[in-house]
Design brief:
The complex is a heterodimer of chains A (about 260) and B (about 240). Chain A is an all-alpha fold. Chain A contains eight helices and no strands. Chain B is built from eight helices and ten strands. The chains are: A mainly alpha (about 260), B alpha/beta (about 240).
Chain lengths: ~260, ~240
Amino acid sequence: MNRFTSITVGIGEFLYLLWRTLKSIKHFPSSSEKFLFQVFDMGNRTLPVAALIALSIGSVLALQTGIQLSGYGIEDKIGGIVGISLCTELAPVMAAILMAGRVGSSITAEISSMKVYEEISALETMNIDPVRFLVLPRFLACLVTLPFLVIYMDLIGWLGGSLVSSMNQTISVSFSSFYNDLSQVVKISDISVGIIKSVFFAIVISISSCSIGLLASGGPREIGNSVTKSVVASFIAILVLDYFLTRLLILVGLL
Amino acid sequence: MKKFRLLKVDEVTKGFNGKTVLERISCEFFNNEVHVILGKSGTGKSVLLKMIIGLIKPDLGKISIDDQDLFENAKENDLILSYIFQSSALLNSLTVIDNVTIFLDEHNVGSKQERVTKAYGILSDLGIQDAANKMPSELSGGMRKRVAIARSLIISPDILLYDEPTAELDPINTKIISQIIDKLRDTNTITQVVVTHDIAFAYSIADKISILEDGKIILTGDKDAIKNSKNALLEPI
């Protein structure tokens, strides 16, 4: 199978699994316990690292931009710039990358291992739909967790930006000035842009991770290959989707 | 439990990547018998079982219960088939008790307490009740196999399919498995189909034996007939 064919087949498998997952949503009540476990697990895996990334990005963004702005005497505009950059672009993309790396990879590893060691075949022989049992809770958990992760990263990133802006001698913008400008520039629609993006990213990460896991075949080596494939596919999909989503959101006037 | 007379594999052919694994296989499994399919590794024994349980579709031929297609008439048949994988295929993220109750849990059969009580009863019958709260990774191969049997028995199957149940087991565990199969024959109306390459094990449990060689059934008969057959093809197995 050449690369073009395998990408086409991969997209087909992705869409088919998405369709089956959406169809199985009616069984959500029976999966609610597994869903809650997944939400807890995803939060547990991502929150500490997300805080570190957001704090770092917010700080560096404030430092680099603030010094440039102070050269023109407009350093008081730093709050708006950091605020809007984080909530419309940096937080959703970084949260999605983190989710794909930390959570997507573990989803693929778990499901591909279950496939290789015939656990999924065992479920099928018991008339238990693997999509309902494995994919649905992970899909919904990702869909709920990622938007919250984006808001969490927004807040911590802003905090990082404000700390650097107030403590750096060259920038020297107080907390109140930073948040005053941020509140004037950043609108609810800007925050919702990040959340809308994160919903699409969550769909891509959860379904592609599960789909690649379910397609694993062969021996244990395939588990490692599947994880690599899943992370690479998610990263590429996030970056490509980000561009088109941004264009779409500009088109509908949200940006 | 529904009674049936005959599970029939009729002229079934299956191949993978252009290579025929099973060629026009026919065999019959009668109610409440232990039927062993004996053959060397790679002769298509597991493929045959996986076709009976419906994990693999045959390229040609039909699998039927009392002349009704097993899968087209699955609802009318109302028969419960269960499969014990060679690897046991326990869900490694669940405890033993959760593995055993998984079918009942996912299909909402009875209350949680009833499911657990039933599972403990079966685990106790198989002598592994102490392992109920362990994870599969903490179990020996023989115990994993018995948990897999418990997981199958909890759904009260009409037909139980075993894929190499003694593979990688020591003689003591092999004996335990053969005792379980004997006990099930004596106390339940379960048809048991066992594929194995272990001749001694086959003789110890079988009512009937079919010998599979190069994708074809070359000999079928009751245990004594097979034992007494002077067929040279039996020797290399």
